[in-house]
Amino acid sequence: MSDLYDLVIYNGRLVYKDAVRDGGIAVQDGKIALVFAASERPQGKQELDAGGKYVLPGLIDSHVHFRTPGYEHKENWESASKAAVAGGITTVLDMPNTDPYTDTIERIRQKDKLIQGHSLVDYGFHIGVVPGKLHPLDGLQQEHAASIKLFLTGHRTARNVIDLDADLETIFRLAAQRQIPLTLHAEDDAVLHLYRRVHRTPNDLASYELIAPRSGAIAAVSRVLRLVRKYGTSIHVLHVSSEEEVDLLETAARAGYPVTFETTAHQLWFDLESAAALGTKTKLSPAIRGKRDRARLWDAVRSGALTSVGSDHAPHSLKEKAADFGEAPPGLPGVQELLPVLLTGLGRHLPELSRDEQLSKVVSLLADGPANRFRLNHTKGSLRPGLDADIVIVDDEQVWEVEAKDLHSFCGWSPYEGLPLTGVPLVTIRRGQIVFDRGKFGKFDGRSLSYAPAPFATFEQVSGSPFH
Ligand SMILES: [Zn+2]
């Protein structure tokens, strides 16, 4: 019996960033031991018929706010990680704007301790920086964090704004020396302040966009590109929202700058018009923009210029969101909806792609791309022998009419409620263990990630980007 694999998944359509192949996967000791063709059939102690459905690598959401510690009235790690695995996600990278702020190696360790035993997914952290207090970065090495996260502007739940030229110069230089990427909330604080002084307090989405305009994002991106040119720092710009940012970042990448970028599922889904009825629920930072911006983001999906899509899962309670437009905190939940929204959007916005090609886009943006970007590609991001057996079986035709009762996030609401989304995960496996199976959950034994001690040679492998 010793020649049996721990788990065999057969009769699947295995999805890679550039191909879909019929076959299956054998798992041993939590790793992918074998990828086999449809004509083969190894035996396992446990066997799973994928039923001809798509089989993807476990998805990576490289941008979440799971709110521990300090904001557990909005979310907790158990509910958030349930939402994640129900959405096919097996790995998340958590942002530092918790309370206390995750701005030291010691606080990363403390956060890790709080999460142990409470997570269905594997996890890592972006480390934060407090303005004028950069000394915690002195001991920072590649193995400590996925990236250094900088907020160039702030809001209610992100108060540590790095705006001084001196701070930025120091951080860009240090990150380049240590070969640690920077992730950026790139909106220019001074520009946004200017608009706030001139425009009235917003009372709807359109007037909110007037005080958080595209010019703020464009100014910030051009500012950081100057620093990239000066120091050679590798950056990943988060939640890109406007046509002009895409243009700038694509051009910089083509010119050989070590630059990649993310957008979010909600920016790919909504525009100012379609989000208007949702009011404060779609109050976001950066703001939702117009149809031509959304179209440009889909262009970047089509061309491969986009490296990753994040959920930017940033739950707030309904009570908090019920405040008036000026007061309500920006952000929305979405880790459970990330894959269904992207799949549905691909069907709608890139209909010229075959379904196989659309699934490959998903793998590129939610597995290969973030794994390569954040030095996780030695363990995660693809259905390759030797990597962790993180696997999700997806029914790409099943329709999910989103209702609050289906949601696992503690905040209990979704901007997509009432909408039909097409494509849902059936079974999610993390390091060989079934952590989600049609509504049932597995063990809360997710663990913290290791980062490959990669120089930016891996940069050439950043999937999704034809420019490197
Ligand atoms: Zn965020």
From TrEMBL:
CC cofactor: Zn(2+)
GO CC annotation: cytoplasm
Keywords: Hydrolase, Metal-binding
Domain Amidohydrolase-related: 54-435
Gene3D superfamilies in alphabetical order: Metal-dependent hydrolases, Urease, subunit C, domain 1
GO MF term set: allantoinase activity; metal ion binding
Biological processes annotated in GO: purine nucleobase catabolic process
Transmembrane segments: none
UniProt family annotation: Belongs to the metallo-dependent hydrolases superfamily. DHOase family. Class I DHOase subfamily.
Function: Catalyzes the reversible cyclization of carbamoyl aspartate to dihydroorotate.
Protein name: Amidohydrolase-related domain-containing protein
Originating organism: Paenibacillus ferrarius
